[in-house]
Specification:
single chain; 121 residues; mainly alpha; two-stranded antiparallel sheet; globular
């Protein structure tokens, strides 16, 4: 018996979320994580992440991007500090790691929309 595919994830119902991203996306996500660790002007330490949370944060962003909520990674990397922190922390706090979906109606500002998919934005 074949399972029907879950929209946006292919036929992965029995295997959990995907972690497949392009090499270019992986490099951008690493730069996003580096930025998240960089203190803002006037801060001694970044309030965003401790060293122990770096891998978890990377996997949260990869999981979100690869499972139904693709991100405009370059735009996120270049976002203002408030929007950057909102999206990165929002993804980390709302990702369901068993499905790869975002909970609590959270939608990143830098998520791909139907307009950006058609090259209109």
């Amino acid at each position: 018996m074949s399972l029907a595919p879950i929209p946006g994830t292919g036929n992965r119902r029995d295997r959990g979320p995907s972690f497949h991203i392009t090499t270019g996306d992986h490099e951008l996500i690493l730069r996003i994580i580096d930025r998240a660790f960089t203190p803002l002007k006037g801060e001694q330490d970044s309030p965003m992440l401790s060293r122990d949370q770096r891998f978890d944060m990377m996997m949260s962003i990869v999981t979100c991007h690869a499972n139904g909520c693709p991100l405009r990674l370059t735009d996120l990397l270049n976002a203002d500090d408030f929007s950057f922190r909102r999206d990165v922390l929002g993804i980390a706090n709302n990702i369901d790691t068993s499905t790869g979906r975002l909970d609590n109606c959270f939608r990143p500002r830098y998520a791909v929309t139907h307009l950006t998919r058609k090259g209109r934005a």
